[in-house]
Design brief:
This protein is an alpha+beta fold. The protein has 4 domains: 111 residues, no CATH class; 93 residues, Nucleotidyltransferase, domain 5; 61 residues; 74 residues, no CATH class. Helices cover 40% and strands 18% of the residues. The chain is built from 13 helices and 14 strands. The strands form 4 sheets. Strands 1, 4, 5, 6, 7 and 8 form a 6-stranded mixed β-sheet that branches. The protein is flat, with a radius of gyration of 31 Å. The termini are far apart. The mean pLDDT is 91.
Amino acid sequence: MKFIQGKPRNQWEMYCLDAHVDADNEVRLIDLFVDSLNLSELGFKVEFEENGRPAYHPGALLRLFIYGYLNRIRSSRQLEKECKRNLELMWLMRELQPDHNTIANFRKNNTNAIKQVFRATVQLAKHFDLIGGKLIAGESTKLRAQNSKKNNFNPKKIELHLNRIDEKLEQYTFELAKEDGDATSSIEAQEKIKKYQVQRNKYEQLQQELKESGDTQISTSDPDSRQMITRNHITEVAYNIQTSVDAKHNLPIDFKVTNENDYKAMGGMVRRAKTILGSSDFTALYDKGYHTGTEFDYAHKQGVEVLVAFPEVASHAPDHAFDVEHFEYSKESDEYTCPAGKKLTTNGNWYNKASGNTINRVKHYKTTACLSCPLFSRCTVNKKGRLIERSEHMDLIEANKARLQETPDLY
């Protein structure tokens, strides 16, 4: 039986790299794309002193980075290896073979410039009419950091550690006094005291760093990471990547790595999308995690229409028919009418109300008719009567709710 035979391994041949790369291979697109970029404007260093061994051109290393990204090769050592055996990369890199340190340093030293390259891909997609620019959606993904929960601290956690250490110090100081004259016990107690004093100094230093920075958390292994809720009330020390995607071909147009939850992210996402698309004439969709009054105000000032899922009511009246949504508000008279037909009025004063790390201004609405109302027990458990708080951003929140009801299919 005959088989297909390979070529002799010791046979010499003339060959051309270009002949081994198909005309529609992605590496040709990468090559053309990088050639089209003004690397110095994007932030890459292209001028080097004529001193010592010549450096690799940033364009060559950028080609390698993009190829690795498209082919899910993240390791700098793996990219180094691929440059020596991968025909596509040999063609793309013109047979250059940078080592893993050079590749890793290029990525580390050009973080902001590489972000601008991503923006350039979005502009290229716009040029070929692949970005609709009329409907976008924003969402987040939380990725665990290289920082365990035990190496993440907040003021309460630090205070707890300090209190425990103080208890231990008091215990061993008492034992030291009690065992006076017993050399072995004294040495052991002194070593324990020294150990806990070192730990106390460590936590006091963390406490001082938190006070000076004004942050609510500090992570010791991965300093920029923060503990946040990931799913079903489970917390992890993580990063939160915010992404905006255009609806026409589901292409991402923007991303940002943050260490905050979603409730303060929408305004910045809308502003960046407006800059990227060059227009405010688009609608942006978000889930209920982004439902924050100050962010509605920010988006409104940007002139962008948003559709944000309405969160569930935080608290209900004893009878759900008396929930605040069933109270009618009159903007002209600035008063509410309850289901029983009574008017709830305000003294016009604004009050600060904390919500997480955000301070909102609210007005209070109430009526003296509550105490004599036969429906009192169905409406509230407050002995002084029903109190309604109206946020300064409630007009924008209600407008968003109306848009959701008008366009449920779009959302």
